[in-house]
Every structure is written in structure tokens, then in C-alpha cells.
Amino acid sequence: MHSFRYVGKELCCEGVPLSTLARRHGTPLYVYSQATLSDHFTKLDEAMAPVDHLICFAMKSNSNLAVIRTLADLGSGFDTVSAGEIQRVMAAGGDPRKCVFAGVGKTEEEIAFALRNEIYSFNVESEAELRRISRVAVKLRRIAPVAVRVNPNVDAGTHAKITTGTYENKFGIAFEEIEGVYARAAKLPNLRLRGLQMHIGSQLTDVKPFRLAVEKVVPLVTRLNARHGFDFFSIGGGIGIVYQSALESGNPSWWTKGRGRGILTPDRYARTLVPLLQPLGLRVLLEPGRFLTGNAGALVTRVEYIKKTGRKNFVIVDAAMNDLIRPAFYDSYHEIVPLTKRGGATVSSDVVGPICESGDYFAKDRPLAKVSEGDHLALLSAGAYGSVMGSNYNSRPLATEVLVNGKKSAVVRERQAVEHIWANETPAPWQRR
Ligand SMILES: Cc1ncc(COP(=O)(O)O)c(C=O)c1O
Asked: Phi and psi at residue 172, in whole multiples of 5°?
């Protein structure tokens, strides 16, 4: 459940009308609900309570310092994929000792940085990486905690670009090879074989692929734990969220009476997985990203033009694919609603941005309330893989981000000044005037 809903005719985030925020801060504007972040974290944390566990928020989904701080204050750890992300955790007041460090391309410098800051574990993606971590640990006279990422070869049944647990993907080490890898790793100096990790994909709305992967991997963990004395097993992230009925899903009754019955809730997830995990007697790590941040954010944009061609009604807005690339990149759906509710007939519309790419669109042939120049729209469920994937394409500044807490709101990222886009660039010496 989330905290974006109409109060009267005004779309609000918690106790603050989005139109107030759009007026105050301009657009494009990301708005995050602190209550939603807390609610989603707490629901998952409570559902997993029967096992010792640590939620490591996958901050690749949203790494704004205020979002990190919200989750750190609730006790969250962090799933990171670069030294930069670990630095962000520290900058937000989070604990690097609750960080796991994933990713296929860790550099020596990143490994050294993580070791010096005593991270919880490296999630290792190859044998070459194990050897490199061992070498760096020896040089620094440290013991490196490691978990190897197993690729269970289970199809998550999600979009190809966010499937990670099959042998077509670059991630992890094949299930059949894992025991040999651990046996060789045990001979490398300065490594502590602390656990095993997996992650099969993102935006899973059915618990079945999770169940199949856990059922397949648990016997392997049991054998490895007996040999190497593990502390944890990480089941990765991937819990899906509601995109299609985002607005309705903010209503509690949607979850109990209506379509919410078919959605993967923390309860459903935990009810299926906890009984499979409990016999391991290990700490369970979870790495949710989208589940914590997705429904907690909206992208607010202003309508610049309405352009009718022979075939189409284009609603041209001031946000673009540089602000939210998911529709262009993954064909993803974001519900689009006006900030001020209106009745009347809908118009089949393409909602597009100002960037010079045909791929710069947010919706195609979407029945949309009739809007005019100067009206505002909100793209819902935009809190995950939204602003973090932002770019300066077409020299467009990164959007403002605001955090709402009840009736309070605060800018948590200023709109980028346009000169900052080229602040690190300079003409070559022979071009200077
Ligand atoms: C290793 C790992 N863990 C966790 C996540 C987070 O996934 P999600 O946002 O779907 O929960 C990802 C996403 O790519 C990932 O690669």
C-alpha cells in the first residue's frame, strides 16, 4: 500500500497536495513518501520475523540520501554495487558493516575500499573475482567475508532485461559448479566463506519462481554450510510491485477485496519461503529494491503542448526519458493521472517528452483524462529505477526530488543547475580563447 491518493479532487502524497509541490519547486519533480518507504520495509520485516534476517535495501533502485536515511533508521542494511554506493550509505549515516557488495566488475580499488570499511560481505560473481579479493585482502592484512552468487538457472518469468537467474545472464556462477568453486576458494588466503547468495530477477509478481529457486538451492546451502560454516544465505531481491492499478492499490480495500489478491504481498512471500528457509538455521538476507521504493515515488510533470496529428493526440510534457527511462528501456507501464481529478470522456493519447528520440515516451494510445497546456500529471510507481537512472541527455538538468512526511515536505535533491552539466568539461588547450 502507498500514500498517493486523491483527497477531494487533489492528488496528495500523504498530507501534501502534489500541485502545491509542483508550484513551489517546478517540474519535472520526483516526490517520495516516507510513510510508504517505512510501511513497505516494516511489512516485509515483520513477515520475515520468524527467521533471523537482515533486509539489505538494493539502493540501485533509489540512492537518494534521504531514502537511504529513512531505511537506515529502520535498521536496514544495503545491497551495493559500487564503492560509490557504499560511500553514499556512509554519507547518509548508514552502516557500511551492514552492506553487501555485489556486481560482476569490482575493481581492486573498490575491493580495498570495501575491506577498509568492513562491509558485511562481498557477493562474488566469478572465480577470478575471488582470487582478486583474496590478493587485496592479503595486501591489506584483512580477512574478506565472501558469499558466491549462485545462478540457479530458474526462469523468473519477467522481462528479459531484468531476468538474472538463468545461464543466459552474466551473473553468478552455474549451480553445478558452485561446490568446486567453494572448495578452491577455501584454499585461498584471507577469505572467510560467509554464505551463499542468489538473485533470480526483478519485478516478480508470483512467488513460484522464488519457491523453485529456494527449493533448488537449499540442499546446496546445507552441504556448503556443513563444510564451510556459513553465517547467511541471501535470497536476493525481486519482489514485484503494482504498476497497472497503482492508484487503486493505495486503498487498503483493494488489497483485501479486489485485484490485490493476485499480487505478491510480503505475507504471501514469507508464508511460502520461511518454512523452506527455517531448517537452514542461518541468517537470511533479503535484497529488495523496487518493493521498498517503487510505489513510494511519483514523477510530476507539466503539460507543455497538445499536438494533434491525423492519427494521434500527443500530450507533450516537460519530463523526458532522461528523467524516467523505464518506458523506453523496458517498455514499462506507469499509470498517469492528473493532479486535479477531472471527469468527462478520456482521450486516447501518447504522452511524450521533449527529447529528440522516438523512444522518448511515457505512454502510447493511453486513455487519458482530457488535459490542456499548463496542467500537471503524475506518473505513479516511479520511485524505483527512476531518478537513479537519470541522465543529462540533451543537456537536461537532473530533476528536483522532494521527500514528504505527513504534512511536511523537503527538497532532498536540488534541481541541477544547467552549468553543472558541463562543469567538468573544458575545451582542449589549443582551442582556448
Ligand atoms: C543482486 C541484486 N539484488 C537485488 C536487486 C534488486 O532487485 P529488485 O529491485 O527487483 O528488488 C537486484 C536488481 O537488479 C540485483 O541485481
From this structure: 70, -175
